[in-house]
What does this fold into?
Amino acid sequence: MPQAVPYLRARIVAAPFFLAAMVGNGAFRGFQDTKTPLFVGLLANCLNLILYPSLIFGLKMGIKGAGVAMATGQTCAGVALLALLVRTKKLRLKDLRKLPRPGEIFPLLRTGCVLSIRTLSIFSTISYATATAARLGTVEVAAFEIGRQIFALFARLLDAISVAAQSLVALALGKGDYSLARRTANRILQIGVAMGTGFVALLMLTVNSAPNIFTSNPAVRQMVSTTFPFMAFVQPINGLVFVFDGIYTAGRRFTSLSGAIFIAACTASSFLYFVRANVMPLQYVWVGLNIMMVLRASLLGLVYLTKWSPVPRPKYQPKGVGNGVA
It folds into this structure.
């Protein structure tokens, strides 16, 4: 706890700039520009790579240095994205001086509250899984954290096609071309499954070598290797899940999206409670997380096939698809 305080104090300074960076990312994506946020993100991460060792070890700031490094990178990213929005005339500074009207804020608050359910459901389930692994022992929680980092890496890669789905499907829906939106969504779903299948092969090929990158502890290495199959074979499902997230976001079906995730998270948490109560092995913790992903894909997939889909099939194409929160 004493170590966490200086780290959090350093990080909290950058909170407004982190939010500005998130808004900037979303704004550029809305303009079909994914290159600018990527370039800014790469520069910010390169800055972090320089600052981390320099502050932590060079200036001997320790954990506080890590917080300062992260805060500096986030601040630079936020300022850069806002400056680029102004420079490209996508944002006018005089508009920032005007307070938004309540009628303009309410739809954003409504959508934000609905999406908060999605975010809280996911992170609370992952946190509960971490706590369950921690109760099993130090080796188990270390192995779980390594697996979680690998899982998160693949999630970031899959998130790229989620962004593509958000942008391209929304563009087609905005033009009123629902057939194009459906074809685009189907093709990106295929790409998501293909990427997930590639991750399966990668994980299974590196089952014995990848753990060595993270730890020199033989027990932890062995434990990580035993969980690789549980992480691997759910990856094609993860590909579907991330693309569905993008499709439902493009169609503004936030309630459907959050509802499916809430049900999946509650089911997974119930299973994790059973695992925790019966002190079951670490592999079952991953089974619990996989349950969440499989249920998310199943529920969103079922809706996708009906007339309530954000991009319905030709016979289900009512007017106004993609407008409002459904």
In short: The mean pLDDT is 91. The CA atoms of residues 53 and 235 lie 33 Å apart.
